[in-house]
Amino acid sequence: MKKRILIVEDEIDLLDLVDFNLSRKGFATAGAIDGVDAMQKLDAFNPDLVVLDLMMPRMNGWEVCRAIKARNRELPVIMLTAKCAPEDKVMGFETGADDYVTKPFNIKELVIRINNLLEKKTHTEFSRILIHEVANRMATIGCYSELLSSKRGPISEENQSRYLRSISSQVANTAELIGEIGHIVSTGEPDENRRESASLAAIIKDLSGFYGLAGEHKGIKVAFEDGGDMDVGPNAAAVKQALTNLIGNAVKYGRENGSVEISTIAAPKGVVVKIKDDGLGIPAADAPHIFKSGFRASNAAKSGASGSGLGLYIVKRLLDRMNATVTFWSDEGVGTTFAILFRRSRQEG
Questions:
Q1: Phi and psi dihedrals of 262, rounded to 5?
Q2: Hey, which residues does 260 pair with through a beta bridge?
Q3: Which residues contact 268 (CB under 8 A, 6 or more apart)?
Q4: Which residue segments constitute the domains of the chain, with CATH numbers given?
């Protein structure tokens, strides 16, 4: 997938020159002629990096950089400007710029600086994702370990076996996560060396059983209706991770004695997976932002559950890499439904 660069420059000829050269280098580009235009295009274009002029009408580059970093401090910004005084550079870095390039500039140098920042961003994201997901698994292992060592009363052999299977599953999934998800997030492609088949329905059945057990303490029932299946092959780890986050959230933010309904539906191009809960729901004002890194819905704290705001961001990132499509609809106080279309490969027909 091409990296997206937003170029903010009020000199049209220079904007076109940078756009042309970055497009030739394989980037997807969009232009903005001033700061206000840039802020309007941030959500629509969702850039991986911003190249930002300083001296612009309506809203200057320092103001734009502050606004960008207030919304997403992880989005890299390169200031590209004729202002070369030391105090200008200091002010640029103080407002949050990640790099500072003065005009006139060499396009090859600009491309190198862009690639360096994008590579740094990828490694940072990768580390944060691993920390987030490994921490979740360790917390789960800890919960089941506490249940096994509980002094509140005897544990049946059946429950002991279930808890131990859950712990074993989380350990195995963590090892798989580090290898497989790491490959996808850092390279943008599944591990093609993984050739064995993997059933989408089997993955969901395993997860619904696991979260059915995890939801028992809240009286939440997890049900799975299998209406379609496909081989997810080399994407198995990413599919499992995306569904883990979605089903886990449905249980985590679900209401007591509620339900989580999971279903698969055969579609012309693949299989649709639906995950429906009757939990908190997402406020309408928050809906456009739920897949952003670090964002949590404004009512999330009502559940008493902690979170980093990375779960849905990871879901979207992984599904994009697999060319899968995720949509959702939600009513605050009523519940949320996520729908994911997993597309079949051409080889499957």
A1: -115, 135
A2: 222, 277
A3: none
A4: 4-105 (3.40.50.2300), 120-348 (3.30.565.10)
Encoding tokens for residue 84?
Answer: 């070369």
Assigned token pair, 98: 């990640």
pTM tops 0.85: no
What digits encode the pLDDT tens for the residues 244-267?
Answer: 889 988 988 888 899 999 999 999
Q: Which of 32, 31, 83, 86 minimizes the C-alpha distance to 59?
A: 32
Burial class for 292, CB neighbours closer than 10 Å (0-12, 13-18, 19+): middle
Cα–Cα dist 340/128, whole Å: 24
Amino acid identity of residue 220, one-letter, is: I
Residue type, position 169, single letter? S
* Local structure of 286: helix, strand or coil: coil
Using DSSP, state whether 274 is helix, strand or coil.
strand
The count of C-alpha atoms lying within 13 angstroms of the C-alpha of 88, restricted to the half-sphere facing its C-beta, is: 15
Cβ-contact 117, 78 below 8 angstroms = yes
Q: Which of 242, 319, 330, 324 is nearest to 287 (CA)?
A: 330
